[in-house]
Amino acid sequence: MRDRIVNAALELFRERGYEGTSVADITTQASVAPRTFYAYFRTKADVALAGFIDWHEAILAELSRRPLDENPGQMLRGALAVMAQHGFASGRPLVDVEGLPVAPAGIAVVLAERAPDVAGRVFQTLTRGHREVARLFRERMQLPETSVVPEILAGAMTAAWYAAMYAFERLAGEGLAPPSTDQLGIAAMDAYVEGIGGLWAQEQPQRARPPS
User: Fold this and answer.
1) How many Å apart are CA 186 and CA 129, to the nearest integer?
2) Helix 23-30 vs helix 2-16: angle between axes, to the nearest 10 degrees?
3) Cα 78 from Cα 82, distance rounded (Å)
4) Taken in order 125, 126, 127, 130, is the CA torsion positive or negative?
5) Which of the chain's ends, N or C, has fewer CB atoms near its CB within 10 Å?
6) 144-159 confidence digits (pLDDT tens)
7) Is 33 exposed, middle or buried (0-12, 13-18, 19+ CB in 10 A)?
8) CB count, 10 Å around CB of 158?
9) CATH number for domain 1-42, candidates 3.40.50.11740, 1.10.10.60, 1.50.10.20, 1.10.10.10
10) Dmax (CA) of the chain
11) CA nearest 9: which of 33, 42, 36, 37?
12) What is the DSSP letter of 172?
């Protein structure tokens, strides 16, 4: 029933937009009573972010199960592979009923930029996830509470997710067939692991030195 409500809501969001869809519209589309909707969700934002929150909880759980000798990039790659086996994601590009690319978790990025109630929930979810991943890194690296390294590494993992979602949306919007969000996220995380400084230098065009 929960999935039925979520699928009905996402279909309406694609057709009418988030702001143009009401809870009444969702219950009608899903053929359920309003009380059934509220048994699963408190607000429209909750149903809009259901896929994102489920994905977020799953990735945190899988990261915590990764072998102790893995670096952050290996942890992310392994966690996403396990999640794909469980039917979560996006080990392959996904399409909607019209054949257009769509990233289920990526709806959080799109809606957060357009709907303040969604933006608040996305921020809360990512902030909590950042703290949990930083705690995991701190424990594995046996670092003191004063070290900022775990927060930096956790921030890189969150940034890799953002990079994947924005890249997916941009490529899909330009009519291109984007790689899966998993592939994009792994590539982004690998770039952080290799070092931002080296990546920046590699991508910068060669400029002639100014005359002395």
Assistant:
1) 18
2) 120
3) 6
4) positive
5) C
6) 999 999 999 999 999 9
7) exposed
8) 15
9) 1.10.10.60
10) 76
11) 37
12) H
> CA separation (Å) from 145 to 154, 156, 160?
15, 19, 24
Domain ranges in the chain are 1-42, 49-203
Q: pLDDT tens across 124-142, in order?
A: 888 999 999 999 999 998 9
- Tokens 């699963």 map to which residue? 40
Which residues on neighbouring strands pair with residue 101, listed in sequence order? Answer: 95
The full length of the chain comes to 212
Please give the Cα distance from 52 to 126 (Å, whole number). Answer: 10
Cβ(90)–Cβ(182) below 8 Å = yes
Nearest to 21 by CA among 9, 32, 4, 38: 9
Q: Quick check: helix, strand or coil at residue 104?
A: helix
What lies within 8 Å, CB to CB, of 54 at 6+ separation is 88
Reported pTM: 0.77
CATH of domain 49-203: 1.10.357.10
Distances (CA, A) of 150 to 88, 177, 193: 27, 35, 13
